[in-house]
Amino acid sequence: MKAVNDRGKEVTEYNNKYWLMLSEAQNAVVYPTKGMQKEEMKWRQWADDWLVHLISPNVYRTTGEALASFDYIVREGKFGAVEGFFAKYVGAAAMFIISKKLKSRHNLQDDVRQDLYKAVNDWVAAIGKNRKFMGGDQPNLADLAVFGVLRVMEGLQAFDDMMENTKVKHWYRRMEKATLNHDGRA
């Protein structure tokens, strides 16, 4: 469906993009308890609509963090000396400026870390104490979506701060192991 968003821009929305097309038998296996499917869809959409928008303002929060982020990108991307120099300094400056605009656009707090901390703590609270993952004993698509968003920060100060100042560490480590082992609902 085509619509106009809050900023007056025409966008295309797919109303069923979080819905899995399963037979009744498959649906009963993938979602054994009532409400599980809607919960998974809700948190997948939350990862797309909120959590992902917290990344840039957090990893490019200060000029030092922007430089460190681009240093990591250049090092992992195996840039040449000249390309790496320009990518690091021009990229860091550009992303620092863009992150400030994103902070404003998404109405984030002055200390954007607080929004990140609240978001991941809300996620952990939604999983609760009686489940390993949102999907129960195995990860579901919501777990995978949130893990994917948070994983992009690994190796950066924002990730270290998040792990130290939130309750997400144990879930995140379980997700690392589960993804390495290819665990999850079939």
Automatic annotation (TrEMBL):
<dbReference type="GO" id="GO:0005739">
    <property type="term" value="C:mitochondrion"/>
</dbReference>
<feature type="domain" description="GST C-terminal">
    <location>
        <begin position="72"/>
        <end position="186"/>
    </location>
</feature>
<dbReference type="InterPro" id="IPR010987">
    <property type="entry name" value="Glutathione-S-Trfase_C-like"/>
</dbReference>
<protein>
    <submittedName>
        <fullName>Prostaglandin E synthase 2-like</fullName>
    </submittedName>
</protein>
<dbReference type="Pfam" id="PF13410">
    <property type="entry name" value="GST_C_2"/>
</dbReference>
<dbReference type="InterPro" id="IPR034335">
    <property type="entry name" value="PGES2_C"/>
</dbReference>
<dbReference type="GO" id="GO:0050220">
    <property type="term" value="F:prostaglandin-E synthase activity"/>
</dbReference>
<dbReference type="InterPro" id="IPR036282">
    <property type="entry name" value="Glutathione-S-Trfase_C_sf"/>
</dbReference>
